[in-house]
Amino acid sequence: MADLEERTLGPSGAVTVYFGNRSGGYPEGNSVVVRGADTALVVDPSLGLLPGLRPPPEADFVVNTHCHEDHIAGNHLYAELPWYLHEADAPGVLGLDHMMAIFGLPAELDARYRPVILEKFHYRPRPDPIAYRDGHVFDLGGGVRVHVIHAPGHTRGHCLLWIEPDDILHTGDIDLSSFGPYYGDAWSDLIETERSLGRVRRLDPKVWVTFHHVGVLEDRETFDARLDRFEAKIGEREQRLLEFLSGTPRSLDEIVAHRFIFRPQDDVLYADGVERRSMGLHLERLLAAGRVAEVEPGRFLYRPTVSERVGDPGSRPPSRRNA
Predict the structure, then answer these.
(1) DSSP H or E run through 8
(2) What is the CATH T-level fold of the domain 234-309, as seen in this structure?
(3) Residues 6+ apart with CB under 8 A from 255
(4) What confidence tens digit (pLDDT) does each residue in 124-139 have?
(5) pLDDT (tens digit, 9 = 90+) per residue, 178-202?
(6) Which pLDDT band, with edges at 50, 70 and 90, does 73 fall under?
(7) Domain ranges of the chain
(8) If we measure between CA atoms, which residue out of 210, 155, 211 comes closest to residue 186?
């Protein structure tokens, strides 16, 4: 940890960001410590905080924005301290079976990923997590307060943290990366993800902190541009799916194999599971909207809307390049 980059934010100096390698690129992340006059908390201890030449930063308790492996990977460094998670995600730390239920992987993938969670991400069960809810306030003393804003979709309990007095917003895994939003687990939801993106857009902090990649942003224009690009990935994935379903009926297995979330060359252990869940959510939405039809059991075809058939300039009929 000797070379761990850190930065103190805001006039009060209450917030310090500890950056993981590659600006917190997965599997690492950017951990945050908030210090008040009375107590201090650490947000999402990451792999970057694992002991090196000095101990991890001191804190009185741990707050996790949600229960994913990379966000709790350093929790074990604070084994004697209280761990706080949103009530919807708190079961994930009760035991490995509970943690794996968040992902909802097929049995074969589940068996292969369990050792990764235990060994690479140092998963340790905790029988007594403390559950918080939307609107909870951690009062650290001296005017330093951390407000919980529930922003589900990524997981059921994913949260933002608004830090006073410097109006700093920790966005968790609304990380503004070029990858785009992740909603590929059993505990993920596409519609809730979109609602949460709208919620973060309506907030007006002075500084944004992301767990991955971007790290710290300090101007609204840059934040809006990055959020626009991040959110646009949802529409791009759905548009590509419509293109793929144009002309030839396709099965969900074919959709998974085509890769809409990951690139075909990406060697990701759980890629097929994420593709199945994510694009299954898109498929469900398109079926409900009547834009896709199940033309034979388990095979789906794009059905253009009236406006697309007549060439409404406001519509975006799919090309046939991937048909």
Answers:
(1) strand 5-9
(2) Arc Repressor Mutant, subunit A (1.10.10)
(3) 241, 244, 275, 279, 283
(4) 999 999 999 999 999 9
(5) 999 999 999 999 999 999 999 999 9
(6) very high
(7) 5-218, 234-309
(8) 155
Q: Which residues contact 14 (CB under 8 A, 6 or more apart)?
A: 34, 35, 36, 140, 144, 163, 165, 166
**Angle subtended at Cα 159 by Cα 155 and Cα 163, rounded to the nearest 5 degrees:** 165
Asked if residues 32 and 52 have their Cβ atoms less than 8 Å apart, the reply is no
Structural fold of domain 5-218? Metallo-beta-lactamase; Chain A (3.60.15)
Residue type at 148 in one-letter notation: V
Rounded CA-CA distance 243/14 in Å is 49
Q: Tell me the whole-structure pTM to 2 decimals.
A: 0.92
Q: Which residues of 90-107 are buried (b: 16+ CB within 10 A; e: fewer)?
A: bbbbeeeeebbbbbbbee
According to DSSP H, which parts of the chain are helical? Answer: 21-24, 96-103, 107-119, 190-202, 220-244, 252-258, 271-288, 306-309
Backbone φ, ψ for residue 8 (5° rounding): -95, 135
